[in-house]
Amino acid sequence: QSTWGLLIENGKVGELPLEVGSVCVLTSYIAYWPNLRQYDQTMNEKIESSLPGLNLASYRLDFLRTAQRWMKRKQDDDRVSPYWRIHNSVYDLRSFIDKHPGGREWIEVTQGTDITEAFESHHLREEMVKSKLKEFYISEINFPRNSPYTFEHDGFYKVLKKRVADVIAHEKPTNLVKNIHNLLLLLYFTTMLFGVYFSSFSLCLLAGIILAFVLNCSHNFFHQADSWRRFAFDLSFASSYEWRITHALSHHLFSNTILDYEIAMLEPFVDAFPNPNKSAFLRFGIIFHAVPALIVGLCVDFVKRIISIFILREQKIRFEYTFIIIHLIFCGIFSETFLSGLQKWSLIHFTSNFVFTVVGLFAAHHHERLFHDGDTFTPTDWGLCQLSAVTDRVETHGITALGVMIFGDHYLHHMFPTVDHSLLPIVEPVFDQTCAEFGVKVRLKSGLSLAVGFFKTAARIKPQTVRLD
Length: 469
What we know:
- The chain is mostly helical.
- It contains 21 helices and three strands.
- It has a three-stranded antiparallel sheet with strand order 1-2-3.
- Helix 14 packs across helix 16.
- The protein is globular, with a radius of gyration of 22 Å.
């Protein structure tokens, strides 16, 4: 029987009760039945990675994919619970959760998993961190990691990482990014308040666009140690807590692979992998059936969050989850009727969702010449694998003010996510030097070519060999 047949027969979608599962399946079939039928036929094929060493991505078997389920399945796949794995060593960090300088969340949510990629990319001065880790060491481990990546001391990433650490050792982030964030927040609240109070369609539309830039800029901060600025991301349908998992721990560390949650969340609307069984509708109808995904993408996350809290009970209500509801109440109170307030609230958030999603999809990852799981890429160095799956736009490269609003300086940000965007331009020279020494060529793309490349990627069915020379 097909996956969908089993789900319907058992009255479940993942672990959903009959009523909710039936509604999910029925709604999905009505809206996107061609994609779902094709998705059902090829789902099992997508679980296998073309990168040797990446053997498991169990979360892809779940119909309802959430941040909590991604992490739970990774715990199952990594098999180190209740500890933490770094390379081939196991540590018990439970007593360190509240002492972690970056905030307890980073340690708490990763319990029971292999955190090698996160450890390497989040700690530039790893000698100091390793000396602290010795206090929590338990033992070595005798089975291979569920990861295709290596971090050799004389490899591209470790050499570049040491140089970057030396460059910024005595540098402090400037206030540029914070000032841009402050300005965007001021502009958003001003246009939103006036738009709601004066029932201005134009101002509400503008508020939605500005909110998208607020989210993009806030993204700089939820990669870093805890601060109030990360919670500006929660002014939308999105959650900074969940995106730390799905974006920082999944997408950033396993870009364009079967472990990349942001690839999975496009499905079944968009299949970014080179799959020879893609239907013509899935390949060439994307310009039509991807539009609903662009408009409601973050809204779907919001609905899944409600299901996760109240039905599956996978997580508790966090205080920042109330921001979006408080905004709805505000719009209702300061409008002629609650329905009018709901319309303004919807306009703001669906506009924000559309702009944020379009900017993200066309930013850096889905040019047709970039690696997508199914392709062949021979090097195993994590930094080189990152460069095979990410590029940057000519128009925003090196311009911090633009970069923080529309995901610029992307390959440097991917390899050093905790480094503030204001510092990325000063590490560009050592990046260029390291690329030259290792024979690596990074080719920037225009924004237009990345946008066109997204549609070519969705239509691509033949695997390719990706090279960086």
